[in-house]
Write a structure and sequence with these properties.
By secondary structure, the protein is α/β, with parallel strands linked by helices. The protein has a single domain, classed as Rossmann fold. The protein has nine helices and seven strands; from the N terminus they run βαβαβαβαβααβαααβ. The mean pLDDT is 96.
Length: 246
């Protein structure tokens, strides 16, 4: 297998950690961004204890200049980025009639605009080298909507529109662009939701459980493989049957 350089945004989170591990297991050099240095250093130490060496670079993906600097630092350390996973995301939940502009804009900036901020400084190099793999992490709620998440659902739905346009523009350059839309995954963030709320969510999932971060990561490593070069512009739903759309 060819060793490549991969950048996973939001790599220190629950799904992000699994993404980083699986890409390293595939033999790639992997970097992730961070905003909280102390949290990132503690995470990096835990990863090293498990045998995973990750390059950590400061970067705020919601900020264009910070994203540009982050990409430049990763490429200076590890070489040109051939695999990009736009995974960073936040929530600022509220019913729309009570939502303020900051709640709206923070989610759109971090979940959607970040895809532009991080992908833009990488895409030209991929085109020049005529190879690339880009995967956006969307959400089941970007497909079906969710009460109290107009901002989040709008941003996550917009991600796939970005995916299919980018896929059309870059297919001839050997670059694939795909979306993965997880359902409810048992991360620390989801586990912090009150038990009775989680039980109601699980009751709506035909598989009868939440997903595991590794299940998302396996799908991403499949889409980033050399052998997956004829899959582009696709959205892979990983939700236990919670939403079954075309």
């Amino acid at each position: 297998m060819t060793q490549r350089t991969a950048l996973v945004t939001g790599g220190t989170g629950g799904i992000g950690t699994a993404l980083v591990r699986h890409l390293i297991d595939q033999g790639h050099r992997v970097a992730s961004n961070y905003r909280d240095r102390d949290k990132a250093q503690a995470w990096g130490q835990r990863m090293r204890e498990l045998g995973y060496e990750v390059t950590l670079v400061h970067g705020d993906v919601s900020d264009n200049a910070s994203s540009q600097a982050m990409v430049e630092e990763v490429e200076a350390a590890l070489g040109p980025i051939d695999i990009l996973v736009n995974n960073a995301g936040i929530t600022r939940d509220s019913t729309f009639h009570k939502m303020d502009y900051q709640q709206w804009s923070e989610v759109v900036q971090t979940n959607l605009n970040a895809c532009f901020n991080v992908t833009r400084p990488i895409i030209e190099g991929m085109r020049a080298r005529r190879w690339g793999r880009i995967v956006q992490i969307s959400s089941v709620n970007g497909q079906k909507g969710q009460y109290g998440q107009a901002n989040y659902a709008a941003a996550k739905a917009g991600i796939h529109g970005f995916t299919i346009s980018l896929a059309l523009e870059n297919a001839r350059y050997g670059i694939t662009v795909n979306t993965v839309s997880p359902g409810y995954i048992a991360t620390d963030m989801v586990k912090a939701v009150p038990l009775e709320v989680r039980e109601k969510i699980v009751a709506q999932i035909p598989m009868g459980r939440m997903g595991h971060p590794d299940e998302v990561a396996r799908a991403v490593t499949f889409l980033t493989a050399q052998e997956s070069e004829w899959i582009t512009g696709a959205n892979l739903a990983i939700n236990g049957g919670h939403y079954m759309g075309w």
